[in-house]
Design brief:
The chain is built from 24 helices and 15 strands. It is of the alpha/beta class. A nine-stranded mixed sheet has the order 9-8-7-10-11-13-12-14-15, sandwiched between helices. It starts with a helix and ends in a 14-residue tail after the last helix.
Length: 799
């Protein structure tokens, strides 16, 4: 019998490892797919869908115990694993091909449909995970397998997205889940095992065919509808953990510019490049002759070249390469083009290298595939110009819809670093979207960043205006700042050049577009002044790096145009507020409905304490995870590093921590682990700002090691909390599947709450909110340890 128990536990450990791996991979894939088909803020719903499905699955087990008894364990588990495998494929393929025509009302309708449909696979995986955790011995070790599987899923999906398309990956994980169903069904359910094996083989064959077609740039199953339009004429397509990059033909041959005062004459060939079917640019034809590129001098994003001589340039966000070509046209001798997205680099250097005249290989041009701020901080080249032109992809990273890589370029700390790179008369030039009548929020925020960063560099308060110039046309505004004051002659030359090109001056030492811009650019803005503005125009920091979100929560449901902020970016806050309210109601329903149905037939003594404990560990884990992910994305300098290091480390070490909790742990000792966790979290919270500040200029490997060392102790202790809760609730074994479901429901709520706290009060506030929740769990553990009727967790019946 002991050998049989060992076999059972190994099989269940394998099963929960695979289903956890596949579930989190599917969640990340939904993040990427939603970002392309809808908008980036819907990508965040992927986390909510996963946790909601797990909650529903747990409740189904709790409310129908006869169906999910020990005697039916293998059959029901295998059926659910197959259900996940098949439904995940069918729903994803439907969503990729569905004609989603978006309007103001249809956006929310699409979200509602997604919530109803995409939750189905996660219900199946929720049943699988809950069955194993609530009907097995060695819960700590099995929960460890669950967490380690999730950790491996995080890393696997990131790596696979840089090689394969989502459809191929979906087939691969569907095959893996079918394999788990097969091994679970093999001993006693031959017919079910054969069905699982057939599904596995079919999924592997489909993955091979789809992947081969994708990698050879031949026609394959692809995304056909995105953001309300049919996807046509694709010359090049690549997916990765950042975005989907697509290149297609351009019919218009007029010179392209972001902001022309007067349309330049002539024609030139282009290719259209877009990111997640929305944010886009062009790839310009170039044969080595700079004369046809003369129109670039008329674009407002290149005003800095007209102000002072520029010999060396750092271009942040290469895109289609226009900014590098502009630097070449103006005679720059040393050009660093820094591009985060490897798919864009592939398009420029391989697929369309002949079309662009191999401009990235010209003398003096260096193309770097890296996150710009991190690379510049480490290599510290001295430059005459740092150019940031409309870096705003609206694309969700794999980390989640509201954790965007470009946010960290628009923070006070980043601008101080950029100004530190400058030659004696160097300039930082930033261009953003603008409308002089109704959309000024980003302009004001740029001025706030300019004024505060200049003062931080030692510019006297009274002289800040001498260091800032800004120019605009109908839709673009460009702000130029320099550690060296602009001389009267330079200002007069800038004014004349702007007039000749059809631009207007927004800020100069003796002129301001309006009183608000004058006060901010002069460094006179106080907190009271900012509080009186219709939008939040304060300078973002690394602790609150959300440059594009300028709404205050009290204005979330107001009309955006009246507040002077971008509709596309700030609608995300409305979605978050809606999701927060919705998940709160859903979480309450999942708590109250089973309670009302079973309170008469089950002992209720101590239930509220157990309920609060499992709710707390769900809230606490997600608040810590999200805040650390946001913080370390800034520190590590790359969204993929932030996602991979944070999730993998926390989940891996949480799994190890869970495995250390034995079933025979004495109930009066259960408070010790929550106490240790609270002490460790306090230490990590205090040490993290110090260590990240001290190591910000070190190499990537050192910063990754430092991040792992910070995260590992916290993950180790957080992983102990669930099996500790199972020991605490041993007297309510019938209700443990419900407790697990509540844990999932509160994780849904916490994932959204954490983002809202970060946006409103900062990443640090979200972290300490998580610590406070765990402190509550410590109090509950102390109370429960004093109850004499509690004993060690009894083994599950039949195992």
């Amino acid at each position: 019998m002991p050998a049989f128990f060992t076999y059972v536990n190994k099989t269940r450990a394998t099963g929960i490892f695979i289903i956890a791996l596949a579930s989190i991979a599917y969640q990340v894939l939904l993040t990427r797919i939603f970002s392309v088909t809808l908008y980036y803020h819907f990508a965040f719903a992927g986390i909510s869908l996963a946790m909601l499905g797990l909650t529903i699955g747990a409740e189904k087990i709790y409310l129908t115990p006869a169906r999910f008894s020990q005697e039916r364990f293998e059959a029901e588990w295998s059926k659910s694993a197959l259900g996940f495998s098949i439904s995940s494929i069918l729903l994803a393929l439907w969503f990729l091909c569905a004609p989603l025509i978006l309007s103001q009302v249809a956006i929310y309708l699409c979200l509602g449909i997604s919530l109803l449909l995409f939750v189905i696979p996660f219900v199946y995986s929720g049943i699988c995970i809950t069955l194993i955790l609530t009907q097995s011995a060695s819960v700590g070790k099995l929960y460890a397998a669950d967490l380690i599987g999730a950790a491996c899923g995080c890393v696997a999906i990131i790596l696979l997205l840089f090689v394969l398309d989502p459809v191929t990956i979906l087939f691969l994980f569907a095959a893996l889940t079918a394999y788990a169903a097969w091994i679970m069904a093999c001993p006693n359910h031959a017919l079910l095992a054969r069905k699982a094996k057939v599904v596995m083989v079919l999924m592997l064959a489909a993955a091979f065919v789809q992947g081969t077609l994708y990698l050879s740039d031949r026609e394959h199953i692809r995304l056909y509808w995105a953001k309300g339009s049919m996807q046509q004429s694709i010359l090049f397509e690549r997916w990765n953990a950042f975005s989907r990059v697509r290149v297609g033909p351009a019919e218009d041959k007029k010179p392209f510019g972001w902001g022309f005062g007067h349309q330049p004459p002539g024609e030139i060939e282009y290719k259209k490049l877009d990111i997640d079917a929305d944010a886009g640019t062009v790839i310009t034809y170039f044969n080595g002759d700079l004369k046809p590129l003369a129109f670039l001098a008329d674009d407002i994003i290149n005003m800095a070249y007209h102000l002072r001589p520029v010999e060396s340039v750092a271009v942040i966000g290469v895109g289609g390469g226009r900014d590098i070509m502009s630097a070449l046209y103006f005679g720059a001798k040393k050009i660093w083009g820094i591009e985060l997205n490897p798919a864009i680099v592939e398009a420029l250097t391989k697929k369309f290298a002949d079309f662009t005249g191999h401009f990235t290989e010209l003398p003096g041009v260096t193309l770097i595939n890296a996150e710009a701020r991190s690379w510049l901080t480490q290599h510290h080249p001295q430059v005459d110009l740092v150019q940031i032109s409309l870096i705003d992809t609206w694309a969700a990273t794999a980390a989640g819809g509201l954790t965007l890589s470009e946010n960290r370029l628009y923070t006070l700390e980043a601008w101080k670093e950029f100004l530190g790179l400058m030659s004696p008369h160097g300039m930082l030039e930033v261009s953003r979207w603008f409308n002089s009548d109704s959309y000024k929020g980003e302009f004001y925020r740029l001025l706030s960043l300019a004024a505060e960063s200049l003062e931080a560099q030692g510019v006297p308060h009274s002289e800040v205006r001498q260091h800032i110039l800004a120019f605009y046309q109908s839709r673009i505004i460009t702000v130029v700042l320099s550690p060296a004051a602009f001389s009267p002659a330079e200002v007069e030359h800038a004014r004349k050049t702007a007039k000749d090109l059809g631009f207007s001056v927004a800020i100069s030492p003796d002129f301001a577009l309006d009183e608000t811009s004058r006060v901010i650019a002069s460094g006179e803005a106080t907190q009271k002044f900012y509080d009186g503005l219709p939008m939040d125009a304060t300078a973002p920091t690394d602790d609150r790096p959300f440059f594009f979100y300028m709404l205050r929560f009290k204005d979330v449901f107001q009309k955006r145009s009246s507040l002077g902020v971008a509709i596309t970016n700030n609608v995300a806050l409305t979605v978050l507020a809606t999701l927060l309210l919705g998940t709160l109601l859903i979480s309450a329903a999942f708590i109250l409905d089973p309670l009302l149905k079973t309170y008469k037939r089950l002992p209720m003594k101590g239930v509220l304490a157990d309920l609060a404990y499992f709710s707390g560990i769900g809230l606490g884990f997600m608040l810590i995870e999200i805040s650390q992910m946001q913080r370390l994305i800034v520190f590590l300098g790359h969204p993929v590093y932030g996602l991979g290091v944070v999730l993998f480390t926390l989940l891996l070490f949480s799994g190890i921590g869970s495995a250390t909790v034995r079933d025979d742990t004495l109930s009066h000792d259960i408070w010790k682990r929550p106490l240790l966790l609270c002490l460790v979290l306090c230490a990590v919270g205090l040490l993290t700002p110090f260590i990240t500040g001290m190591l910000v200029s070190e190499g990537t490997l050192i910063r990754i090691i430092a991040s792992v060392m910070l995260l590992a102790p916290a993950g180790l202790c957080m992983g102990m909390m669930f099996p500790t809760g199972m020991i605490m609730s041993a007297g309510h074994r019938q209700m443990q599947s419900w407790f697990w479901g509540i844990n999932g429901a509160m994780s849904v709520f916490a994932s959204i709450l954490g983002m809202m706290i970060s946006i409103e009060a900062g990443i640090t506030a979200a972290y300490w909110a998580g610590v406070a929740v765990y402190a509550m769990c410590l109090g509950l553990a102390i109370i429960r340890s004093c109850q004499p009727e509690k004993t060690a967790l009894a083994p599950a019946a039949g195992v």
